[in-house]
């Protein structure tokens, strides 16, 4: 095996040899399950890379949605609620962020929320709540949007996910500005800038400055 191979590939090789050379095929099903999980993990990871490329260049790669849907399907077959929930979050994100289709995003987000809650996956849940907030905000339901984003932020603080907290504070600042509370919005952006800078989240720090300009709070 080449250096750096995933341990699941190593185990699959070992079980192949046990079956072919040792006459013991009992563990082949387990090896198959390992490889299905590996395929799911790879599809999810590749989809995330394509999403990062979209955020950088603004051009959709049609493979992104297919990868996330494939990952969700494989995790579902494995009975992996955590993996399925995370994959469905990304399915919803493609529809919401890239394709601007909230109606298509909503079912994926709803199921992702259920699965992340069931699996105790607070990080994925924080992402789902953040994006549900965007949908509520677009529909003009500001208070509902704020409640979702505040809960997402609470989870992220508990997880010490500082760049994610900073990103959420930008959204909360936008909601405060919508309510006409410019002092609160300014304070939220100041905290976001401090957290982003302190955690090395330079991309989020840029978002803070862009928000200051857009909200005229510079």
Describe the structure.
With 218 residues, this protein is mostly helical. It has 10 helices and no strands. The longest helix has 30 residues. The radius of gyration is 21 Å and the shape is elongated.
For the record, give the distance between the C-alpha atoms at the N and C termini, rounded to a whole number. Answer: 56 Å
Overall residue-averaged pLDDT value: 94
H/E topology pattern? HHHHHHHHHH
What fraction, in percent, of the residue positions are helical? Answer: over 70%
The number of helical elements comes to: 10
Largest sheet: none
Q: What's the number of extended β-strand segments?
A: 0
Q: What's the multimeric state?
A: single chain
Strand content: under 5%
Overall geometry comes to elongated
Low-confidence stretches: none
User: Which structural class is indicated by helix and strand composition?
Assistant: mainly alpha
Radius of gyration in whole Å, from Cα? 21 Å
Defining traits:
218 residues, mainly alpha, 0% strand
Please render the helix and strand layout as text.
Layout: H1 7-20, H2 28-57, H3 63-78, H4 81-98, H5 102-119, H6 122-138, H7 142-158, H8 162-178, H9 182-198, H10 202-215
Helix pairs in contact: 1-2, 2-3, 2-4, 3-4, 4-5, 4-6, 5-6, 6-7, 7-8, 8-9, 8-10, 9-10
């Amino acid at each position: 095996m080449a250096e750096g191979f995933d341990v699941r590939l190593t185990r699959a090789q070992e079980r192949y040899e046990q079956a072919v050379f040792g006459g013991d095929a009992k563990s082949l099903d387990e090896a198959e399950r390992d490889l299905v999980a590996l395929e799911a993990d790879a599809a999810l990871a590749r989809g995330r890379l394509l999403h990062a490329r979209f955020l950088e260049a603004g051009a959709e790669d049609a493979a992104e949605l297919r990868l996330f849907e494939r990952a969700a399907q494989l995790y579902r077959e494995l009975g992996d609620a955590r993996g399925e929930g995370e994959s469905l979050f990304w399915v919803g994100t493609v529809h919401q962020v890239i394709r601007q289709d909230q109606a298509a995003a909503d079912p994926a987000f709803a199921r992702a929320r259920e699965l992340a809650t069931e699996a105790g996956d607070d990080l994925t849940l924080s992402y789902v709540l953040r994006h549900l907030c965007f949908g509520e905000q677009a529909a003009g339901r500001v208070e509902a949007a704020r409640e979702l984003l505040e809960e997402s932020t609470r989870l992220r603080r508990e997880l010490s996910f500082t760049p994610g907290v900073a990103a959420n504070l930008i959204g909360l600042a936008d909601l405060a500005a919508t309510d006409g509370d410019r002092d609160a919005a300014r304070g939220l952006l100041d905290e976001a800038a401090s957290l982003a800078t302190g955690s090395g989240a330079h991309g989020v720090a840029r978002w803070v400055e862009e928000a200051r300009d857009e909200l005229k709070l510079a």
